[in-house]
Amino acid sequence: MEDLAPQIVRQRLLIEAFVPLIDSGIALYIWTNQKFLSCVLYTCKQFSVDDALEFTKQYFNASKLVHREF
Fold it and tell me: Distance between CA atoms of 9 and 3, rounded to whole angstroms?
């Protein structure tokens, strides 16, 4: 039987990161093969959403962003 593990790893390469901050945090998930990332920012401090979106778009060379605020 053929070993399928290397194929599964190539198809589902995921990089995860979490940065805990005081009363806040940043979570980042990147699926490299699908060229998809999810970044979640939780903060009690005021910040410019537009600046955060622009920074993310430029840093990851993203062609499209979708965001939600709550």
Answer: 12
In the block, tokens 């622009």 appear at 54
The two beta strands, 24-31 and 14-21, are antiparallel
The list of the chain residues with pLDDT below 50 reads: 1
DSSP H or E segment with residue 60: none
- Beta carbons of 19 and 25 less than 8 angstroms apart: yes
41-53 in b/e form (b: 16+ CB < 10 A) is: beeeeeeeeeeee
Alpha-carbon distance of 67 to 4, in angstroms, equals 36
pTM over 0.90? The answer is: no
